[in-house]
Design a protein that fits this description.
Oligomer: single chain
Shape: rod-shaped
Distance between the termini: 146 Å
Helix content: under 10%
Order of helices and strands: EEEEHEEEEEEEEH
Strand order of the largest sheet: 1-2-3-4
């Protein structure tokens, strides 16, 4: 028959010397239900059931951690199949890991961890993990979409040996080559809205080359910064600016084939007229 035991205070069941002894309380029943909170103080809790069902939406691990570096996660006993497995939070690297380990389930942080494979489905969202198939066939082989912001943000597909156009006022073209891996950038027609062009190499030349018999043309003012010293020139003519001399222009030129490579100053119209009058 049913029996109810009611007490107005705490109720203690103790066998032998209690928690320090070896005696056991055995509840032999189809169902044991605890209607209040259940607190278990001990070193180990063993659940010998075929199925564990938990109503909580989150399970908290390392509950009493006060800030020390602790690894925590799910530990799988693999028996004789090999080293045990764990999916856990590696506190030292602030990341989740899947690994096999020779450490026991009570070891934290793990001192032995060999990374294991994680199998996932093909990615559907931008934040999904990518599979090896996706990387090998979609990214490396099949091409992928690149979005360019600025004058033109249209989606294009790029793959090895595909020409990628950066549309807009600057008209820049790139071509990716498969082997060796490189991207060549070429100027297509006209460059606009350019404030400066500089050479990144120390003391390196900046060369402007016209096509065929074409010329390099400066439509507006061409400004020369003053040089402290005289440059050297082989069988080419160099034009530069220095302190104004007898020619009255401050624009000098030098060529090894002219006057034995001695620099000379371009003469102004005023100076030339005065010399012509003086020399008759």
């Amino acid at each position: 028959m049913a029996k109810t035991l009611r007490t107005s205070g705490d109720y203690t069941i103790k066998t032998g010397s209690g928690s320090s002894g070896s005696n056991v309380i055995d509840l032999d029943s189809k169902t044991v239900r605890v209607r209040g909170d259940l607190i278990i103080d001990g070193d180990q809790t063993v659940i010998n059931t075929a199925t564990l069902s938990v109503e909580d939406t989150f399970i908290e691990l390392a509950r009493n951690n006060s800030g020390s570096i602790l690894d925590a996660g799910i530990y799988v006993n693999r028996g004789t199949a090999g080293n045990n497995a764990a999916f856990y939070w590696d506190a030292s690297e602030a990341s989740f890991k899947a690994a096999t380990t020779t450490d026991s389930a009570g070891t934290s942080p793990l001192t032995s961890a060999t990374l294991a494979n994680i199998r996932v489905a093909e990615p559907l969202d931008n934040t999904d993990a990518a599979t090896k198939f996706y990387v090998d066939n979609i990214v490396s082989g099949g091409g992928f979409s690149i979005f360019f912001s600025g004058d033109d943000s249209t989606s294009i597909t790029a793959s090895p040996a595909t020409t990628v156009y950066f549309s807009g006022g600057n008209n820049i073209i790139t071509r990716a080559t498969e082997e060796p891996d490189q991207i060549n950038i070429n100027l297509r027609q006209n460059l606009t809205d350019i404030n400066s062009i500089s050479n990144g190499s120390t003391n390196g030349d900046l060369t402007l080359i016209a096509n065929g018999t074409g010329s390099v043309i400066a439509n507006n003012i061409l400004t020369f910064s003053s040089n402290v010293s005289t440059p050297t020139a082989a069988s080419v003519t160099k034009l530069y600016s220095k302190t104004v001399g007898g020619g009255g222009t401050g624009v000098f030129f030098i060529n090894s084939a002219v006057a034995s490579g001695t620099e000379d100053e371009l003469i102004s119209k005023k100076k030339a007229t005065a010399l012509a009058i003086a020399l008759g």
